[in-house]
Automatic annotation (TrEMBL):
<dbReference type="InterPro" id="IPR013923">
    <property type="entry name" value="Autophagy-rel_prot_16_dom"/>
</dbReference>
<comment type="similarity">
    <text>Belongs to the ATG16 family.</text>
</comment>
<feature type="coiled-coil region">
    <location>
        <begin position="81"/>
        <end position="178"/>
    </location>
</feature>
<protein>
    <recommendedName>
        <fullName>Autophagy-related protein 16 domain-containing protein</fullName>
    </recommendedName>
</protein>
<feature type="domain" description="Autophagy-related protein 16">
    <location>
        <begin position="7"/>
        <end position="191"/>
    </location>
</feature>
<dbReference type="Pfam" id="PF08614">
    <property type="entry name" value="ATG16"/>
</dbReference>
<feature type="region of interest" description="Disordered">
    <location>
        <begin position="36"/>
        <end position="66"/>
    </location>
</feature>
<keyword id="KW-0175">Coiled coil</keyword>
Amino acid sequence: MVHWREEYFAALAVRDESEKANISLYDAYTRLADRTSRTATTTTPSGPQPDVVAGEKKQRKPSNEPAASITDILTATRADLSEAQRSRSELQGRLDRVTADLGKLQKRSAQDQRRISALESERTNLRLRLRDRDEELRGKAKLLDDFQDELATLNLQLNMAEDRTSRLQQENKELVDRWMARVGKEAEAMNDASKFS
């Protein structure tokens, strides 16, 4: 995300560039105004006044030269004006291109900003889903551990029950054997007693 200072400095740079873009146009009009004022000074009928041009003094021209001088000045002024207009059209073209590029970049920046916002929202959503999934996995792992503990406890109880059953069966067999032996002895004793009677 662009920091506000960078946006501010970028806006200042664009402003400076647009203000300095027409500097040649301003200079051309300034030269034109200077020549016009010099022309007005040269053609005044106030008498022989010297005209200072570029630090040098010029003598008053003869009466047939002012017309030619005015024509030259007019031609030079028209040339300066056409040069200023050409410069203005070039600068206007550059300004139009820069404005179009700026519009494209601003549009692209807005699209990128929307895409960044969408991606940040998706990232937040995915982080929440991942956290929920981690909690679910931890819960299932705990449930599995509890189930394995319960299964181990039941296996232990089953083994103990089988051992007890086995022991009780052995005791029962021993009791039955002893009882059968006792009953057998009693039966033999009764048989023996019945023989003598």
